[in-house]
Amino acid sequence: xxxxxxxxxxxxxxxxxxxxxxxxxxxxxxxxxxxxxxxxxxxxxxxxxxxxxxxxxxxxxxxxxxxxxxxxxxxxxxxxxxxxxxxxxxxxxxxxxxxxxxxxxxxxxxxxxxxxxxxxxxxxxxxxxxxxxxxxxxxxxxxxxxxxxxxxxxxxxxxxxxxxxxxxxxxxxxxxxxxxxxxxxxxxxxxxxxxxxxxxxxxxxxxxxxxxxxxxxxxxxxxxxxxxxxxxxxxxxxxxxxxxxxxxxxxxxxxxxxxxxxxxxxxxxxxxxxxxxxxxxxxxxxxxxxxxxxx
Length: 295
Fold this sequence. Notes:
By secondary structure, the chain is α+β, with helices and mostly antiparallel strands.
């Protein structure tokens, strides 16, 4: 699904075939989840292949390795140049890109010396598809921000996402919704959430969530298009009184929700702000959107 015999990846300064790469069985990422990754997309545009917001993604990667104390000395420009070359070597334009920094060998629970950088890419449709999602509230909470750096994409953090996703999928739902330590709505297993209520868009503020790059893009588009948008905490009960809701993320892009638990959102998706924002976001990443700046 992700690679073929001919797929090329970047591994520690070289472009090599994916099937030829091996990593240490003593690495701290494997044993303790101390690694950092990113999810990035490139698009085929009228100006050629364009990696969307490459700088912001690689800035977040560098933030992650810094707070996790992982050795890493690539610049943002070097990472971007490597990624464009990798896309070309794999003859890809519309692609999903996965950089990951693996911590070095150390069986102790303190930061290892050294690291490995891997960058991979493949064709990948929207992670959650295009159909409206049936969502269930998970019994698992988003990690307490006092327990870890929740805004860093650390590999080990996603055990939380796997637990929540497995739980709700076994119950017949499409996706999990996680609450935070205060029982406010946080996000789903791998994307941010927005709700629409009486003509206003709301999304949880930073602090207990992954500060998504797609999330910030949607907020910017709302402001530019004159769509009222507020970052504030809201409860599950408030969400179950909303007109509509949607998820955002690099892999998912923008996808609408059909229901949360027993509650079905009453406003038709095609008549919602979420639907309009889904279309505007696609125009944005393809470089086709004419921005309507408002005072």
